Amino acid sequence: MAKTNLITREGYSQLQQEHDHLWNVKRPEVTKIVSWAASLGDRSENADYQYNKRLLRQIDRRVRYLRKRMPDLQIIDYSPQQAGKVFFGAWVEVENEQGEVLKFRIVGPDEIYDRKDYISIDSPMARALLKKQVDDEFYVTTPQGKKEWYVNSIEYPGAK
């Protein structure tokens, strides 16, 4: 399944900051170390050279990915028409019959990494939640079968 090209404004800003940090700070630092280590001679047994050369490749790979991905992303801001219903960017609290409560934000697939409280708009839970309102029940198909959930609350960052 293809990734959705949606992203929140905060998510886009974080990707831009990551790109700028990698390109303007991290890459020049690592390049200096690689040049210094290369000047020492035998590169095949130089751990500094080998490690930093690999790190440089990782940085370059991530920068290439960000430069390719970011122009395709569509920033989605909150709109007052979304009030009361679950759409992209919403913080949602859901509960099942066992009393298990989850709270998360529905965001783009590029934003979920390093966050336990974000889920991708492409996930089964997010897809099942779209357009639901508080107190609505909905079903999510899981490997263990269909699970029933209820919407407890919906909030949008920046909504007044």
Q: Major beta sheet, specifics? A: 5 strands, mixed
Across the major sheet, the strand order is 5-4-3-7-6
What is the helical fraction, as a range of percent? 25-40%
Termini distance?
35 Å
Number of helices: 3
Characterise this structure.
The chain has 160 residues and is an alpha/beta fold. The chain is 38% helix and 24% strand. The protein contains three helices and seven strands. The strands form two sheets. The chain has a five-stranded mixed sheet with strand order 5-4-3-7-6. Strands 1-2 form a two-stranded parallel sheet. It is elongated, with a radius of gyration of 21 Å. The protein starts with 5 loop residues before the first strand and ends in a 5-residue tail after the last strand. The model has no long low-confidence stretch (mean pLDDT 90).
List descriptors.
160 residues, five-stranded mixed β-sheet, 3 helices, 24% strand
Topology:
Layout: E1 6-8, H1 9-39, H2 47-69, E2 74-76, E3 91-96, E4 101-107, E5 118-120, H3 124-129, E6 137-142, E7 145-155
Parallel strand pairs: 1-2, 4-5
Antiparallel strand pairs: 3-4, 3-7, 6-7
